[in-house]
Amino acid sequence: MPNDRSPVPRLVTSLPGPKAKALIDGDERYTSPSYTRPYPLAAHRGFGAVIEDVDGNRFLDFTAGIAVCSTGHCHPEVVAAIKTQADTLLHMSGTDFYYAPQRDLAQKLAEITPGSDAKRVFLTNSGAESVEAAFKLARFHTGRKHVIAFSGAFHGRTMGALSLTSSKAVQRAGFGPLIPGVRHVDFPNPWRGPSVDDCLRQIEKIFHHIVPANEVAAFFVEPIQGEGGYIVPPPDFHPRLKKLAEHHGICYAVDEIQAGMGRTGRLFAIEHWNVVPDIVCLAKGLASGMPLGAIVARADLMDWPPGSHGTTFGGNPLCCVAALETIRLLEGGLVANAARTGDYLRKRLAELTDRFEVIGDVRGLGLMVGVELVRDRASKEPAPLQRDRLIEHCFRKGLLLLGCGENTVRFCPPLVVGEMEIDTAVSIFADALTQIQ
Ligand SMILES: Cc1ncc(COP(=O)(O)O)c(C=O)c1O
Q: 113 exposed, middle or buried (CB, 10 Å; 0-12, 13-18, 19+)?
């Protein structure tokens, strides 16, 4: 299939096709009703930025499996590394034993994350587990109970991570009481407000009226809000928030789970602001689709003793070699490609604003691009139904997209995407815009 250069999208059945229908019927009988499927895609295989469904329909994938398949689907070098490792050692548990892939990946992550201090790494299975680990570490290290996170943030769905998440009410409803000691303040939004001053004032108010700063263990913050709507904060936000954290001995815990691993055109998104975090949370793009997460923290901060935190599967050897290969490919050109093609994608999408009043804002960094839809630009009233119809229409034309926030379409293709694929995607997107006007 990777050598088949026939044009994509290539639709050979109505959607969903007969095999997809059968698969979906079976799936929906047995899987959890909590899953959210925006359209009936039944994936069979993938390469690069292409997904083929079970009926042989080929789609341009601008979701990368929710911002995961950074090197493209089934990158041959990642697959080869996994296959070689699978013949050698599938599992031994890095919490209790030693093996080279875990050591090599920990060393690599310590070297490439921002900051020149010595660092240590804890490997996990997912984003939520990385956040969970960071939450525990921040409390443990500081001996403080409280943390501050941001409205609109998504940090995962396990109890600790969910307590920090403030994205959609449905994600929290019915699961309380959540972890005590978490407070949310607004995240700055250059297009809609609030301003950085407003947000920092809310934190100062908390310090003044509710929790003294010296009882706050950490700020948990996404460099760019992901699920919340692909919101890039103003240039002074991270530097000022970091300064406040430093002033009060509060850990700066950056959730790079969606924005990291090259997606924004820098290996780590926080590098755009020249801020050195205390703890970095990783997952998603780290291992090109293998389930792996990590936290990286300054060595003096990761001071928990043996037995205080561990995991059976985290740092699985297959995932570690996939991550090492992923990082090699990212450093070897894919981060640069994300920066270059991301600029191109934003430019092409911005060109549509003159034609379509429904486009309120086009924003992003690298290949983390959001298009916010509104009823009209003057009122900025969100247009969530049009957003959903637009995404459905794009699927029917062979382009895979996802929403984020209330009314934003996210473009997060694999970092191997090229300009021709972007041109095709933008033309399908433009056609869909004409259908929903
Ligand atoms: C910024 C961020 N943090 C954490 C998570 C949770 O990751 P996972 O679904 O792997 O638990 C996500 C997932 O979307 C995310 O975008």
A: buried
